[in-house]
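re: ur question from yesterday

yeah so i grabbed the chain u mentioned. its 403 aa long if i counted rite. heres the sequnce exactly as i have it in my notes:
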Amino acid sequence: MQNVGPQGGGAPGPQGPGQFGSQGPGPTGQAPSGPPGYPPPGYFQGGYPPGGMPPGYPPQMRPPGPFMPPYPPARRRLGWGWGTLLVLLFILLGGSMLLNLVVLAGGGAGGVQSTIAQGDAHQQIAVIPLEGLIDESLANKFDRFLTRAQNDKNVKAVVILIDTPGGSVTASDEAYKRIKKFKGEKNVPVVVAMRSLATSGGYYAACGADHIVAERTTLTGNIGVLLPRFNLTKLMDKLGVEEDTIVSTGAIYKNAGSMFKPDNERDIAYFQTIADSAFTQFKLVVSNGRKGKLKGTIDEIANGKAYTAQEALDNGLIDDIDDTGYLDAAIKYATSKAGLTGPMVVKYQDPPVTLFDLMAGSQSRFGRAPSANGININLDASLLDRVSSPRLMYLYRVPQSKE
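ran it thru and got these structure tokens back, copy pasting raw so excuse formatting
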């Protein structure tokens, strides 16, 4: 076996044992030239020994071989850029935790407040938002905010800021009843200020207030009930899938509305009764909340139509249109009704979850809804959790212009 070593002396060739410091092939085991005494005669006989090179052999001259693997590559040290990034990350995380502790200590369960207009701190008008899809979570938050305003002796009036397409029947009714309860226990003026949408369940809740103001671009009304249902029977037939749900004897309506079986007249009539019952309740709330103000019969007005601000005013669904600016008309009415002079206006809100939420800024409340035939359909995500029990909704289907 022969080997070719590198030019120069002091180490065998990289391919295994061979001459030590020569420039060409040499017989295996021949004592090569090199530093005095290295290697000893016969050292390379039969290859490198398991123990490696003799003690004191210069590391820089240690050759690779079958018994002596090459040195591992040196670890790369992180540059100053990575170190700076890690320091900043720890600072942000620590600041976020500290900020949350501060705002939670100051706001408690009722959230925190920001000042919209400076004034007398003993004469406060609390602006409480009802924004987004009205579901159990939003109804609970709304209840917390009203509870805080109710317990604050400095709050002399409340403005409810509504911007919602509606939501579930139960959550909308809870928001409405919470307003009525607040009025009965706190006995201060409650004014609704509508923004872009105060439709369906949003208008249902608004009927609990003393006075309703809309912006001139507001859509409101949309008095009606939806019971979204989807039927996949034809698709299942093509796929060869059948539903074999077992229903207890006598419970003929237990699986009514299943999307995996054909519709029948009995089930349709059953769900129609449920929707009509909720619709009757909706019309009763509007009639009581707008008693003496409606310009026509409730059956004429409650046709599912979303009204513009001017149409809503003409029909008596609202009391005023704000042409001056954001919240101005609602705050002006609340100030006058409560007999205040120079009140402080504050807005309730949940504390930010992290420091990154503050840095992110405001985002769209609704996002981009799924589209079908040019119509954006806002649905509660939990509608499909149980297909056998469709959820009743006071919800507005938002038209979308085709691009």
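noticed a couple things. The first strand starts at residue 2 and ends at 3. also The mean pLDDT is 78.
anyway ttyl
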